[in-house]
Amino acid sequence: MKDISTKVLSLYDELQRDSLDLHAFFEMAGEKSAEQHEDILDAVAELVGIGMLRSAEGGDFFERTEDGRIAVAGPKDVTLYTREGCHLCDSAKIAMEPILKEFGARLREVDVDRDPVLQRRYTEDVPVIFIGSREAARHKIDPEDFRRKLEQARRA
Fold this sequence. Notes:
It contains 7 helices and 7 strands. The chain is α+β, with helices and mostly antiparallel strands. It has 2 domains: 3-69, CST, Suppressor of Cdc13 homolog, complex subunit STN1, N-terminal domain (Arc Repressor Mutant, subunit A), CATH 1.10.10; 73-155, Glutaredoxin, CATH 3.40.30. The strands form 2 sheets. Strands 5-4-6-7 form a 4-stranded mixed β-sheet, with helices on one face. Strands 1-3-2 form a 3-stranded antiparallel β-sheet. Helix 2 crosses helix 3 (34-49) and helix 5 packs across helix 7. The chain is elongated and about 50 Å long.
């Protein structure tokens, strides 16, 4: 992924916002040159095209999709794709909690039934666990394997 695309996707975390407009992306670039604006517009268009951003609230606002969030997730960002009433998901979360504390990792739970893309992708597979941008487990979690993968992610 291009550096400018990574910056665009990371800006959502930096500003702690779900939706950003083009002006926020232009400010990120610092200088206001037409060439930099074109590079940002190209990056945004590409990110929309590959499903990492989507238009929101009119033409100048964009939301980062879950794929866009995962693409820039760090080694301490653990994502649990789940759904309501999933006993395997509950078991995975319980197994992960002490290991997450041990590593100082953050857990984000995402209900796949709230996003049509995720529902199609994971409907038969929850729980699915990501460490950063890499899938770490599906269906069940092996605590020792999870610990090892967190350690590897921390060293990478």
